[in-house]
Amino acid sequence: MIDQEWLISRQDFLWIHCKNADAINNLLDIKNSSLNFFWHQNDNYTITSKKNVWVYPGQRVIPGSVCVLPENWITLDRQDEVFQSYAICTDYVHKFQHEFAS
Predict the structure, then answer these.
(1) Hey, how many other C-beta atoms are within 10 angstroms of the C-beta on 84?
(2) pTM of the model
C-alpha cells in the first residue's frame, strides 16, 4: 500500500488508476484531500473523482476530456480530437509535448 501522506503531497500531479474496490474505498476514506482517481475496465468513458472524463483508447475524444494512448489509435482524420482534449495519457510524452508546442 502507498503511504497516504505521499499521495496527498503529490495530489495536484497524480491521476490514480484504482485496480480494485479496496483501493477506491481507501482513497475515499482519506480526509481533506483532492485526489484525482478512477477505475475502469473496458468502459468507453469513465468519470474521475474530479469530474474529468477519461476516454478509453480509440473512442471518440470529448472536448475537454483525457485522451488515452493516442499513439495506439491516432490517424490523420482523428488528430484534431487529441488537440481538443484537456490532457493526454501516453507512453510518449515528448512526442505529444512537441506536437502541442507547435
Answers:
(1) 12
(2) 0.82
